[in-house]
Amino acid sequence: MTDTHLLPSGLDTRDLRSALGRFATGVAVVTTRDARHAVGMTVNSFCSVSLDPPLVLFCVGHRSQLRRVLSASTAYAVNLLAAGQERLSGQFARPGLDRFGAVRWRPGTTGSPVLIDALAALECITEQVIAAGDHDIVLGRVVEVHPVTEADPLVFFGGSYRRLQGNV
User: Fold this and answer.
1) Cα(46)–Cα(30) distance, integer angstroms
2) Nearest of 34, 13, 21 to residue 134 by alpha carbon
3) Is residue 18 part of a domain?
4) Gene3D superfamilies from the xrefs (predicted)?
5) Engineered SS bond to 120: which of 2, 116, 132, 148, CB 3.0-4.6 Å?
């Protein structure tokens, strides 16, 4: 049996996933809180939208725990990961783990967890959520920027983590 599935458009999901994997992305951990605990998830669907006003977006699956918590909380942090933080990315990518147990973090201005060792962190307030297929696009206004570390970013390409290798 194969994991191939045809979409209504006739596209093969395996081909689509392979093509999308040819686009290099940064890696971030989006974090938030509910009344009881901190929640976080690794994403590579993060991007800037506007400098004025300062807007960013990321995509999250409809059924994810992060999406459920964001339905009640409008504040979150986008923690940009540095090269060498593959383990941290993996920790927030796997379900069922105590994701914050061995992670150094502190509550930010909005109360959202800010990962202390992140390359940079952006605290945001949700401006709009747009339903898009099996995901939601979360558009947020940046309300706080936490120090930027001078290091290379963690990069994801072709199904694995990569490092930048010099300038062109």
Assistant:
1) 9
2) 13
3) no
4) Electron Transport, Fmn-binding Protein, Chain A (2.30.110.10)
5) 148
